[in-house]
C-alpha cells in the first residue's frame, strides 16, 4: 500500500523540478575557452614538434615541459593594428597616382610583397616604462628602396617577447604586409639584394626555452625558409653585400666574423678572423673588403688577397659606434656616439663633427655623407671627399614638430626625398624646398 502511495508523490516532485529554480549557493566556475581546446595535449616527440607561427595572427598551442610547468605566454597587444579582408572585386586593382602617391613598379619588391588578401593599419604603440616610447629595435630600407621594414617588439615590458614585422610601400606609404612571430625576439634585420629574403636575428629567451636563431624569411609568403641555431653569442651586426653572395654576422666581443651564403644561411659559414674584437663593421664600396673599427684601429680584410689585413690607426680616445665606406675603398667615415666623427682617406683623417648622434649615412647617388649631431638632433650634409658642409636641418624644428631622435634616414631616389623614422615612432618624408626643409608626416605613434 505504501509503495502505491509513494509513486504519485515522486512523479509530482519530478514535475515541480522543471519549473523555476530556487536560490542556489554560489559556485566558483572557470571560464570556458571557445577558441582553444582545454584538454592537456599529448606529449609529442621532439622530432615531430613544428612551429607554425610564421605569418600568422593566431595563437600557438604551448606545450608543457617535462617538469609539468607551463611555458610563460607572450602577451600580445593588438590594439594598434587592424587587419581587414580585401573584397574579391578590389584585389589586383592598381592604385592610381595622386598627391604623394606614385605608381608602384611591377618588378619592385613592394609589388611582390603586397598581401593580396588583407589590408592593414598600424601605428607604433608606446610602452610606458622608464622612458615612454615604442619598441622599434630595427628598421631597414630594401635595396631597391621600395619597401621599408620596421620591427616592433611585442609582449610585456619584462618579457617574454615576440616580434611584428611591418612592411611599408614607399611609393604610396601603404602597409602592404604584416608578419608576427609570437616567440621570436627579433633585434636586427637585413635585406638580401635582388631577392625576396629578409635575414633576421632572434635573441635567446631562456624563460620560454627559445634559442637564439638566425632566420631567413621570404617576404612574399611571410614564412621562414631557413634558420640556423649554431651561433651562441649575441649578434652585434648583420650586413649583406651588394651581390647577394655574402652575409656578414658579427658577434659581440669577438674577432670572428661569420660569412654566410646570403641565399641559404643553413650552409656552413666561412670564418674571417680579426684582431679587433669590438666595433662596428662595414663592406667596402666594391664589396671586396670588410672593415671593423675599434681597439685603436680600423682593421680591413680583403676577400681576394688570401686573407691579408691592413690597419688604419684611430685617433687617441676614439671608440667608434658606426662606420661606413663613402664611395671609394680609400674613403671611410666613423663616428662615436656623443663623441667625434672622422673622415679617413687611407691613413689621413679629418674631424668633421663633435657630439655625434645615431645617424652616419652615405648617399652614393648624391656623393654625400650625413652625420647627426646630438644637440637638436641636427643632420649635417658633407661633400665627399672634400668634407665641405653643404646643408643641414633639424627634424624637431620642422612642422609638424616631433621630438624623437632619428633612428633611420634613407634616401628615396624616385622621390628625391628622405625617409626619416625617429625613436618616438614618427615616420616622415623630409625634403629640400628652395632654401628650407619641409616635412610630410606619414605615421604617428599611438600613445
Can you walk through the features of this model?
With 447 residues, the chain is mostly beta strands. The protein contains two helices and 32 strands. A four-stranded antiparallel sheet has the order 5-6-7-8. A hairpin with an 8-residue loop joins strand 15 and strand 16 (270-273). Residues 1-66 have low confidence and may be disordered.
List keywords for this structure.
mainly beta; globular; 447 residues; four-stranded antiparallel β-sheet
What is the compact description of this entry?
By secondary structure, this protein is mainly beta.
Write the layout of secondary structure elements.
Blueprint: H1 2-16, E1 81-85, H2 109-113, E2 118-122, E3 126-127, E4 133-134, E5 138-141, E6 147-154, E7 162-169, E8 175-181, E9 185-191, E10 197-203, E11 213-218, E12 223-228, E13 235-240, E14 246-251, E15 256-261, E16 270-273, E17 281-283, E18 289-294, E19 297-302, E20 309-313, E21 322-325, E22 331-335, E23 341-345, E24 348-353, E25 356-363, E26 368-373, E27 378-383, E28 389-393, E29 406-412, E30 417-422, E31 427-433, E32 436-443
Antiparallel strand pairs: 1-2, 3-4, 5-6, 6-7, 7-8, 9-10, 10-11, 11-12, 13-14, 14-15, 15-16, 17-18, 18-19, 19-20, 21-22, 22-23, 23-24, 25-26, 26-27, 27-28, 29-30, 30-31, 31-32
